[in-house]
Amino acid sequence: MHTLPAGTVTLLFTDVEGSTTLLNELGDAYAGVLADHRRILRSEFARRGGAEVDTQGDAFFYAFRRATDAVEAATEGQSALGDGPLRVRIGIHTGEPLVTDEGYVGIDVHRAARIAAAAHGGQVLLSQTTRDLVAADVALSDLGEHRLKDLTEAERLYQVGEGQFPPLRTLDATNLPLAASPILGREQEIADVLALLAGGTRLVTITGPGGTGKTRLALQVAAELVGTVADGVFWVPLASLTDPGLVLTEIAGTLPARDDLLGYLRGKALVLLLDNFEHLAAAATDLTPLLAASDGLRVLVTSRAPLRISGEQEYALEPLPPADATTLFVERARGVGRSLAPSPTIESICRQLDGLPLAIELAAARTKLLSPELLLERLDHALPLLTGGARDAPEHQRTLRATIEWSHDLLDPESKALHARLSVFAGSFPLAAAEEVCEANLDSLGSLVDLSLLKPIAGDRFLMLETIREYAVEQLEASGQADELRRRHANAFRALAAECYARRVGAESESSERLESDHDDLRVALDWLATHDADGELELAGALGWFWMSHSHLAEGRRRLRDALASSNAKGPIRATALMAAGGLAGWQGDAGECRALLGEGIALWRELGDVPELASGLDTLGWSLFAVGDNVPALEGFEESLELRRHLGDALGEMRSLVGVCQILVAEGDVERAEPLSRQLLDLSRERGDLRSEHFAHHFLGDCALIRGDCLEAEDRYKESLRAALPLGDLLETSFEVQGVGMSAAGKGDWARGVRLAAAGVALWESLGATIEVPFWDALLERYIGSAREQLGADAEAVWAEGHSLSFDDAVTLALGPKAGDSKTTGVPFP
Question: Are 148 and 273 members of one domain?
Answer without folding.
Answer: no
